[in-house]
Automatic annotation (TrEMBL), chain A:
Predominant location category: other
Keyword hit for NADP: no
Identification of the protein by name: TMM80 protein
GO cellular component: ciliary transition zone; membrane
Subcellular location, record wording: Cell projection, Cilium; Membrane
Membrane topology: Multi-pass membrane protein
Protein keywords: Cell projection, Membrane, Transmembrane, Transmembrane helix
Gene that this polypeptide is encoded by: Tmem80
GO BP term, example: non-motile cilium assembly
Originating species: Thalassarche chlororhynchos (Atlantic yellow-nosed albatross)
Transmembrane segments: 6-30, 42-62, 74-94, 106-128
Domain of life: Eukaryota
TrEMBL record, chain B:
Gene Ontology terms describing biological process: cilium assembly; protein localization to ciliary transition zone
GO cellular component terms, A-Z: MKS complex
Key words of the record: Cilium biogenesis/degradation, Glycoprotein, Signal
Presence of the UniProt keyword Cytoplasm in the record: no
Record-linked Pfam families: DUF1619_N (PF25752), TCTN_DUF1619 (PF07773)
Every Tectonic-1-3 N-terminal domain range: 2-102
Cited PANTHER family: TECTONIC FAMILY MEMBER, TECTONIC-1
Family indicated by similarity: Belongs to the tectonic family.
Top-level taxon in the UniProt lineage: Eukaryota
Residue intervals of the Tectonic-1-3 domain: 138-298, 307-495
The protein's name in its UniProt record: TECT1 protein
Organism name: Thalassarche chlororhynchos (Atlantic yellow-nosed albatross)
Length: 129, 523
């Protein structure tokens, strides 16, 4: 049986991620205007943000598909991608060029969501196997 | 942060009112009135930073300094929590130029004032020539006049009074300059700038970048002797070069006056130079040279305009007469509106004839004192004073624009004459009954002008000129006594321009017409 909390979490994660992506992009633009943000530091931050967006889409799609079709393979792949997303989120939390307090807040919420999702995914895989 | 102190300027000494100065002792602190630097913090955009607060506790006796080290928190949600970019919050130190990066830095930061080689000068002239072959050039105002080798030179003082030969003469720019040059008698033949040849040997190009040349002809030569006396020479074709004669060096150029004739197409067709040659001996060094250049348009008589078209402040007002006759004849004698010029001895009868032209925009007042003795008769005195105040030929018409031509009669404003008296009317009637004398004592010329034309560039135009003569009664003096009365003449310029009215476009109208055959069956 598909896990309903996991599905709810995926749905909420999707909406939250859209907000997160727009907020981070806006804050990078703000930082580049207000602070001195040379191009060699701006390019990696923007690139990683877009990579994270792509990974997130893939992750949510695979996870949702695996949960609804009760297959463990997509769910497992989604779990692996989640690890990558966690690393990127930690980058935006700690290793970004300028870390504002707002960055800390939204990244913390995202990490918490990822953690919860990982636990539920592991439980779901265990149930499907 | 606790160790930073901006006001600590004196080393090993206590700075006044500097609470963070480590050289100050508690006794010094008790003498301060305030703290010039109350707080020292790091960048305030950080979320939390250390701050050192200095204050004076004036209630304690003696006053003491309070030093607190606290953590200041930035409440904004966009405060910087951390940065991974070391130079983020401090000024960047510029790159030190070394032999490797010098060329790159020069290209990046060099500009016209500091560049490697002015090779862009050569590139420009090569690039222009092939493409602009078909364009016809002509001289425009201010463009340097070109000669065969370089430019027509008008030596002038640059920075100091010494002559600099690199000053080009600009087209249509009338200039007169004076500068000094050092010349030695032994080498006077070798110095180019004092010989006539230097000023006339290169021909002027008729149009820029062409091959038509105009030779500079020598119009006249005036020879100035050592004591300053000038004589004009008859044969002005001979070129007189400097030569040494009896310990004097003669034929030194002391002044050149160029007269250039041009067409209205911007071409120069004639050039003439008038020279003043002089002689120097050992005592007369250095010499002063004066240079002048003036431009005349071909087929015109040079009439000095006082503005084009509006009057320019400082230029004389043009006035004239209209000879009797109808219809208006075409010639007006150009004369100037003048007023009496005050002299140093202030005696009206002694300084007859000194007059100064009235300049537009400059209010003037002048006068003199008239000593009246008992022996003076009324009528001759009145006539003398009128001549004194008005001058020999007081004009009848004043040009309303600075460039009014004689043929345009509507451009000339007649001068209105008024008479007033110093005493009240009753007194005047009483005095005329007595048969006493009215002598003019003051002339006031009031010139009313207005701004004419566009708002951006208004031109001054004279609309009304009124000359008011004020008379007073001359009382008969007992014989032997004399009286002094002041005679004044003044000019006042009044601006009578009406305030500018904005002009608006007309409202758009609906232009609706019915078609021709709208009422077809009935029309």
């Amino acid at each position: 049986l598909s896990s309903v909390p996991l599905q709810i979490l995926f749905y909420v994660n999707g909406i939250y991620y859209i907000f997160y992506f727009l907020a981070t992009l806006a804050m990078i633009v703000y930082k580049s205007q207000v602070f001195s943000y040379p191009d060699d530091f701006l390019a990696p931050d923007l690139a990683l943000l877009f990579i994270m967006a792509i990974l997130e889409v893939l992750r949510l799609y695979l996870g949702s598909k695996g949960n609804l079709t009760e297959e463990e393979a997509p769910l497992g792949l989604s779990l692996v991608i989640t690890v990558g997303s966690v690393i990127l989120s930690v980058y935006f939390l700690v290793w970004q060029t300028y870390v504002l307090k707002a960055d800390v807040i939204i990244n913390a919420v995202l990490l918490f969501t990822y953690g919860l999702e990982s636990v539920l995914q592991v439980i779901a895989i265990a149930a499907f196997v | 942060v606790a160790k930073l102190c901006v006001c600590d300027l004196l080393v090993a000494q206590c700075d006044v009112n500097c609470c963070c100065d480590p050289d100050c002792s508690a006794a010094d602190f008790s003498l301060f009135t305030t703290c010039s630097v109350p707080i020292v913090t790091g960048d305030s955009r950080l979320c939390s930073q250390k701050a050192a607060i200095y204050s004076l506790d004036v209630e304690a006796n003696p006053p003491e300094r309070i030093f607190k080290l606290i953590d200041q928190v930035n409440p904004s949600v966009f405060c910087i929590h951390a940065t991974n970019y070391k130079q983020a919050l401090s000024f960047s130190s510029p790159e030190m130029p070394t032999s490797e990066n010098f060329d790159q830095l020069l290209k990046q930061f060099g500009s016209a004032s500091f560049s490697a080689e002015p090779d862009n000068w050569n590139m420009n002239t090569d690039a222009q020539n092939p493409s602009d072959v078909n364009e016809t050039y002509r001289y425009k105002y201010g463009v340097p006049i070109q000669t065969v080798d370089a430019f027509l030179r008008l030596p002038s003082p640059v920075v100091s009074s010494w002559c600099s030969d690199a000053n080009p003469a600009g087209f249509l720019v009338n200039q007169a300059t004076k500068c000094i040059r050092s010349v030695s008698v032994e080498k006077c033949g070798n110095i180019q700038a004092v010989s006539m040849l230097f000023y006339i040997n290169s021909s002027i190009l008729a149009v820029p970048k062409s091959s038509q040349m105009v030779n500079i002809t020598v119009q006249s030569i005036v020879v100035q002797s050592l004591n300053g006396m000038r004589t004009s020479l008859n044969g002005s074709d001979v070129l007189r070069l400097p030569m040494i004669l009896d310990e004097l060096c003669i034929n030194i150029v002391l002044g050149v006056s160029y007269h250039i004739t041009y067409t209205d197409a911007g071409e120069i067709i004639e050039a003439a130079a008038s020279f003043v040659l002089g002689a120097i001996n050992k005592e007369a060094l250095p010499i002063q040279q004066s240079f002048e250049i003036s431009f005349t348009q071909v087929h015109t008589k040079p009439v000095p305009l006082s503005g084009n078209p509006g009057y320019v402040v400082g230029l004389p007002i043009r006035a004239g007469f209209r000879p009797q006759g109808y219809p208006f004849p075409n010639t007006n004698k150009y004369s100037q509106l003048t007023i009496l010029q005050s002299t140093s001895n202030q005696d009206c009868l002694a300084a007859q004839g000194a007059r100064t032209p009235i300049l537009f925009g400059y209010n003037m007042i002048s006068g003199c004192k008239l000593r009246i003795t008992a022996a003076m008769k009324c009528q001759p005195l009145t006539q003398t004073l009128l001549d004194l105040l008005k001058g020999q030929s007081f004009p009848e018409y004043v040009a309303s624009f600075g460039n009014s031509q004689a043929q345009d009669v509507l451009d000339w404003v007649p001068i209105t004459h008024l008479h007033t008296s110093e005493q009240s009317d009753n007194e005047r009637i009483y005095n005329t009954f007595q048969g006493s004398c009215q002598i003019p004592v003051a002339l006031e010329i009031e010139v009313k002008w207005t701004k004419y034309g566009s708002l951006v560039n208004p031109q001054a135009r004279i609309v009304n000129v009124t000359a008011t003569i004020t008379t007073t009664t001359l009382k008969q003096l007992p014989s032997g006594r004399e009286r002094t009365i002041p005679i004044t003449s003044s000019v006042v310029f009044t601006d009578t321009s009406s305030p500018a009215e904005p002009g608006y476009k007309a409202w758009p109208t609906i232009n609706a017409k019915l078609p021709f055959d709208f009422f077809f069956p009935f029309v």
